[in-house]
Amino acid sequence: EIVMTQSPATLSVSPGERVTLSCRASQNIGTYLAWYQQKPGQAPRLLIYGASTRATGIPARFSGSGSGTEFTLTISSLQSEDFAVYYCQQFNNWPPITFGQGTRLENK
Amino acid sequence: EVQLLEFGGTLVQPGGSLRLSCAASGFTFGTYAMTWVRQAPGKGLEWVSSISGSGDSTQYADSVKGRFTVSRDNSKNTMYLEMKSLAVEDAAIYYCARDYETSGIGGIIVVLGYWGPGTLITVSS
Fold this sequence. Notes:
In chain A, about 0% of the residues lie in helices and about 50% in strands. In chain A, a hairpin with a 3-residue loop joins strand 5 and strand 6. Chain B is an all-beta fold. Chain B is built from no helices and eleven strands. In chain B, strands 2, 4, 5, 6, 9, 10 and 11 form a seven-stranded mixed sheet that branches. In chain B, a hairpin with a 4-residue loop joins strand 7 and strand 8. The termini of chain B are far apart. At the A-B interface, strand 4, strand 5 and strand 10 of A face strand 5 and strand 10 of B.
């Protein structure tokens, strides 16, 4: 099973800041990585797939990078609506599909 | 517009059974793989099961293998999750989700581009 590890667990940030979230895979997954955003009481929303491709309708301030075992989600200028939990997910070697434990963005 | 809506969540006793449904609309249902993901209260996301567009290919998490069965009826645009021998650790919000892009009737990608609002299962005596 591929273990996905996200860091940090919680990030205290202010609107307008540049934010970088990390995700590490326990094995090489190429670029078979997706990022999701989840707000309280809502289903997750797909942000990025293939490590760096934005899903339809996702603002350009969200970008993804990385390959192999190290991945990054960057929010170039944090907006108030971006406070949420972010999950990475690998879809290279499965089953099982595995998610990271999530990174929570909280308002500083 | 793609819409997914789960049904069937309720309170069930340990050892009990339940069937969830996921009704889909706004796309050609039979050409997309579908997935169940669950989330225990206050916890992260856990993949449960996926099924190809044709229904011929299914996969399960070890935690549910042998107890849960995923299926679909493409004539009714509906996916199901039959759950048996439910345990306290199965309590969660269950989401159905659709692959972001089609990989044909036989493939499963598990990039989850569309999600339902979820249905809550509580397991308690």
